[in-house]
Each structure stands twice: as C-alpha cells, then as structure tokens.
Predict the structure.
Amino acid sequence: MHLNSRYLGPEENQQKVVNILYYANKNQLSSSEGGLADLYDSVYLQYLVPYNTIPDYNTVEVMVNSNRLQKHLEKLHPYFVGLKKKNLKRLDIVYRKYAEYYSIYDLNKTILEFNIQSVSIVSGIRSEVEKLDISLIQFTTLKYLKIEPDVSLTLQEYNCVIYSNPQLETFHYIMSKSNPYLYFDIITVFTDALIEHASLTDVNLLMGKQGSNYFGETNANLSNYLCRNTVVKKLTYEIASIPGICNPIINNTLKSLVAKNLNWEETCYPLSLWKSVSGIKSVDCNFQYNQILDTIQFHCNLQHLEAGFIRNQDDISNLIQIINELPTLTHLKIDITDVYRINLLRLTEALCNSKSLKYLQLIGFSGSYQIELFNQLSISKTSLEELESLSVGESTLPPLLSIKSIKRLSLTGPINNIALILNNQNIEFLKLNSTLASSNGLTIAIKNYYTTTSNPHLHPDKLICSTKSGLVDIWSLFKKVSMSK
C-alpha cells in the first residue's frame, strides 16, 4: 500500500470506500518534509487505522531536504507497528535535487536503530566535495541495498559496503553516466569482496561512465567470479569489448544473466564460456542468434530470451531453430530492424507451433504482419497468455483479441478507442501507451465502460493508459462513476 501525504485530505463520508481503494492501490507511504500535517485528518487515519488494515505495515518512503530523517520517522511512529517495535523492513530515501545531504552516519544510525532490512537511496548521499567516512558504512541488518544514480563510491568504499553487510542478499549499484562530478576509480566490479560474499543472490552493477577508468567486464573477470561464487542467482553487469583468453565457466547455480553493452561494438560473448550444462533460465543480452544457437546445448534450460536485432534471413532461421530446440522457452522478445526485406512466414509457423511460449514481445513489426500472425495464432493451439507490441493500430485489435488464450496486453500505438479491449472478458490486464496527443477518446471509452458495466473486470489497478499528454487518471474516473451510481 502506498499512501502519499501530498494527495491525502478530508473526504465526505460517502466517498470513503472509493478513497480507500484509491490509496490502497499504492505500495508505500510517502511523506514530504513538513507535509505530514494533513495526514492527521486524512482518510488514511480516519477510516483505515480503526479497521486495523494498516498497523502491520512497515514500509516508509521519505523525501528529505536535509538532516531530518529521524524527525520524519518520529512523526510516523504512532501509526506504524514497524516503527514502534523498531523493526522497519524497508526504507526508501528520495533526495530532492540540490538538497543539503546529511552524513552517512545519520543514515547508518537510523538503519541500526530500526533494524531496517531494505534501503533504496535515490539521488545523492553527499555533495560533490563531501567525503564519505568508510568506517561508518556498517549497515549490518540490511538484506537489500539499492543506490542510484548520483552516489559515487571509491573502490575502497565499494568493498567496504559489501564487506560490512554480511546478510545482504540484493545489491544494486547504478551510477549516472552523465554527472561529471562523480569520482570513480573502480576498474572491475568483480572484486574479492563481491566474489567471497556468502549471501548475495541478486547483483546489479551498472556503472560505466564516460571519462572513467571502467570499460566493462572481460570474460576473464566474469569467469573468475562465477567459478569462485556459487551463491549468485541473478547477475546484471556491463560487457567489455576487450577479447582475451580465460578459463571455461563451471557454474550451474546462476539462473539469470543480463549483460549490457557499455560500448556499442562487437563484444565478447559470455555464454560461450560454458562447456557444461548451465542452470541459466533467463538471458537478456544484445547477442546475435547464431551465437546463441552455437551454445544452446549448454543452455538447454532457457525459458526467457531477449537477444539482439533480427537483421537478415539468417537471423530468422537461427531464431526458428532456437524456438524449435528449446521446449522450455516461455518468454521471447523479438526486435526486427527491416521487416520488409525479410520473409517471416516460417517464423509465424514456429510461433504458432510452440507449445511452451507464454509471453511474446514484438518490436519493429508491421501492422500487416501482426494481423497475419494474430490470425494464425487464433486458430492454432497456442498457449500464449501475454503479448507486448510497440507498433499496434486499431485495425490490429480484432485479430489480436481473437486469440482466446491472451490474458494480458501491453500495447503502444495510435489507439484511441479501447472499448473492444475493455469489453473482452478474457483480458485481465491492459497497459496502453497511445501515441496520440489527446486522451479524450480513451477517457470517454473508460468512463463509458465503468458506467455501463455492472461488474467491471478491469478495475483501475488492472488498467494503465497514457498518451503524449500524460497518464490518464483512471482512478478519478472510477471514483466519479462510483459516486454517481
């Protein structure tokens, strides 16, 4: 549940049910400095707390201008069991731009006092001239730490953060690539501190930056990490374009690999380092399909595949063979660069014949091809449940909705009237990014749907729509219609 104090305020009694639904749709409580006064008279306190729907909630998001984190938590103290028991599971700290940063000591003190297990720090933890005292980085209770994007750690600080968090299970460190003031002396993120950590299962390290000494990770660095560490399950890192000789990877515990290109050049292909069957189930990398096909015997457990662009007919042939040889494949992203010069007939057949595919993302495909594909899928025995397309028009909707197995849609295109989707009982979730400037058509369709449907199956938490002018406020439409019934 997310309750943002900026949007809370007294409501009429007859609106309280809809308001509770509105605020309960969020995920955290957010408070801005000096903005908690309206919390005391809000629907949140009047209607939710008396019914004991909030007392066990123990996640707080705090927006701070200066050294007042402790004061924020003291104000929230009466309303959160997590604060009263000094057992707050999650703390999200959002810094405003140009804020006066408080020291790492104050943050560390709060983490230890409230036994916080999860911390996300967005924006800066110090100014460009302030130095971090590494002896104070002792977040010993943390299991989750995310830092982005303007926090600069030296190599010594980076290692200290990892060493000082023996219970850490998730570590995301994502550095801004555009801030010229960030100091960075890390050459490889796969340090001994990371390799030897006994509980880190989710590691996301994206810190390539112009002007730094970091050029991405070589295959030798990756091999050294994965051969010596059998704890990590999910790894996101940046690949170097530097070739080199390294030992084969012997690791069957890694389940997910996301490799980003730091430099847009030919990169080393890490999946080729396995010479025995891996445990990898998910790959998101800008690799070519012939590379994947050549190593598929060692990655036969793949379920989720996001690879490089489809550039020519050979790529199509290799992708078709991958689909046919991976009976476990459930999630596939296909990005094509020149759809009009490539024959896609055999690809259509492969997609229709797949018995395992549950999710399909299409990028760059023409409307005419998608209509043909959807028509063929509708008469096949496909198990496809979710589809995402970045180029859909209204003419594409009828054949798309004729696929009875489809339950979730994520669409981008010049769509104005979504009545056909809203009235389809098979659709359980819709995310629409309309490329039109006006939201009038979407607003009319959604309002009419909630007005004329006695028991709408697509509630506002299952419906996300936007246009070039911004998000459509579906909750407000839902509130107005509910109050008028």
